[in-house]
Amino acid sequence: MVADEDFIATMSWKLTEIFGFGVASKRPRGMNFYRETWVLGQEDVCYGNLSFGGQRNTMCIQLTAVGCMAAHSGWEKRLYDFLRDTAVNPRLTRVDVAYDDFDGEYSVDQMYADVQAGLFNCGGRNPFVEKRSDWDNPDGSGRTLYIGKRSNGKFTRGYEKGKEQGCKSSKWFRAETEFKNVDRVIPLDILLNAGAYLAGAYPAFERFRGKKTPERIKTIIKEAEFAFDHYLHYAALQVGRLVNYMRDVAKYSEQKIVESLARPGVGFPQRLKLANISADLGNRSFVHQYAHVDYDIDEFARPPVEPEQIELPTTADGWKKFCRVNKTTLFDLGVSGIQG
């Protein structure tokens, strides 16, 4: 039998092949009723979680929207191939599919008009509809429209993404549908044809069929631009008067002002961390690079040893054999933020 640590390390290696990042560290406690949970990518910019232990020898992998954006290009096809050809009894438990409109061709107002026109009805039933924020007197903070209930197998939100990011004049609109395995099976094909599944979710979304959402890098840049403006605005409110004093009264040079206010070694604001852009700009140290066994020093008084390199399976057949000999693996996979 292979120790749990080696099994996690092997999965980390496989995830790095698929996404470009693996398992970074162990969380203090498990999530989703699993005994242990591990962070994917890095702790301060979490790309997802891997949970394992105590649930009929299954493994649960969750990928966040940030993880989807930071993963190496083509990860959807690589994940599809792995789940179809290699994983044992895989299933998708949730997939979020999004469409971004930067130009205002579709909006929350049009979406609500489609609701009233019956274009979000499924099976002749009117869906549950909820508005968030001030729709009567919009203040520029962004409005959201929810279609359906979170507990259902299909739940949709449309919101003013640009305004949510802090730009009151932005036309950026995002439509996002959660598909969950509630009374339905989510086909693996959704990983390859996300846009078609979004377009088929409601008659109103047929307008998205055949359209491509903006390139991933364009979305990342747009989010970074809004985040930078947001941080700059509040930085000016917080220290603007002090900067005036430092320049006009204390006679600090611009360079000295920057050096006095900067905090070396603490990195960048959360929304501007480079790891948001690409996994290659984040943590590159993952547990699969070495086999680790932690000992309680009071219980095991033994000299430290050099970590062993893990012997990893290198083929699909080898992976299947590894899984079947050591664990019965069922992958409960939740993926957020796939773009249509």
Automatic annotation (TrEMBL):
It comes from Chromobacterium amazonense. This is Replication initiation protein-like C-terminal domain-containing protein. It holds the Pfam family Rep_trans. Residues 91-260 form the Replication initiation protein-like C-terminal domain. It comes from the Bacteria.
